[in-house]
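DOMAIN: structural biology
WANTED: fold as C-alpha cells
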Amino acid sequence: MSVHVVGAGLAGLAASCALTEAGEHVVLFEAAPNAGGRARSYFDAQLGCRVDNGNHLLLSGNSAAMAFLARVGAGDALSGPKEAVFPFYDLTVEAAWTLRMNPGRLPLWVFSAARRVPGTKLLDYVALLKLLSARPEDLVTSLVGGAGAVYRNLLEPLAIAALNTMPDIASAAPLRAVLAETIERGGAYTIPRFARVGLSESFVDPALDWLRARGADIRFGARVTALDPEQKTVLAVPPWVAGALVPELVVPDAFESICNLHFKYALPPGEAGFWGFVGGMTEWAFARPEILSVTISAANRYADMDNAEIAANVWGELARVFALPDELPPHRVVWERRATLLGTPEQLARRPNTRTNNPNLMLAGDWTNTGLPATIEGAIRSGNAAAAAFGALS
C-alpha cells in the first residue's frame, strides 16, 4: 500500500525521501504546479533572471538539512565562507564590523575585541547563558534585552531572523534551541551556508529527481480536498490548509510576514557573500551573481508601506554602505504574507505534534511542534519525524 504525502514543500519532500528510503511507495500530491513551497526559485521576467522567492541562511550545525542534501546527492549545493564569520554594518553609526567565531566549543572569540561585537566586554556575554534555560513563556527582550550592545548588535538581529517575530513578543525557547545546536557547539557548527545557485537547484530539484529515480509518483496541480482515514497520509501543508482538512486539529492561527527585495545589481560578494545590518530597514543582504537580495523579517511592521517606498528606503541604505549609484535599479519586492507562525508563547502552544488521533495520519511542516523556529531545518526535521512515526507503526 502506498503512503500519500500531501504537500511538496521541504517538509513533504523530506518525508517522501525518508519513506522512499525505508522501502515505501510514495504518492506525492502538490496543488501548485511546482514544488518547494516557500523555498523555491523561479524566473522573474521583470528582472530577466532566476531569483529565490526568499533568502534562507543556514548554518553548518543544521544537521537535518545537511543530511537531506547528502541523501539526494546535493551535498555540494550550498556555498558560504569557510569559517564562522558574520559581517555586519551599523547604519546608525555608519560602522562595519565582523563577528568571527573560533571553531572549537570553548568560545575563545569572546575574549578577543577584534572577534566579538564592538563595544562589548567579556562579562556582557553572560546574556547568552540566560538563554540556555529559556522557557516557552520567556520573551526574548524580557530575558536578555538588558545586554546592551550584545543584544542590539547580535541577539536582536539573530532573534528576528531565526524567529521571524519581534523579540519583545517572541518566545525565547526556540531561540535557545537554535543556539544549543550552533553557537553553543562552537564555530564549526555556526558556519553560514546558503544556496550556491538557488533554492530549487539546491533542495527541490535534486529531491524530485531522487524520488522519481526510485519510483515515487509525483502529481502536481493535484489539490487534495478530503482525506481517507484508512489511507496512510503525511499532511505537509500550511496550517490553515491542515485545519480545514482536519477540523478538530488545533493549529497556529497568527502569522508573520517576510519581505524580500531583489535588485538587478551585481555586487562583489566580499568575504562571506552576505551582510547583516542593524539600525535600519535592511536586515540581511545577499550578493548573488546577478542580483543583490535583501530580506526583512518580522515584516508585519511595514505592512502599511507601499513597495515603492520600501524599495527606495532599502536601496538608499545599500547605496550608503556600498557606495552604489543613487538611482534605483530594476527590482522586485516579494512579500510572503503568512511566511511563518507568529513566534509568541500563545502560538507556540498551538503547534501540534507529529502524531494525530488517527494512526494513519501524520503531520509535517515547520509549524508543527519541532522545538525549533519555522525554518528549513525545522521543516525537514518535521518530515523526517512523520516518516519515522509511520516506521514505528509498521
Observations:
- The radius of gyration is 21 Å.
- The chain has a mean pLDDT of 96.
- The first strand starts at residue 3 and ends at 6.
- Residues 238 and 365 are 7 Å apart (CA to CA).
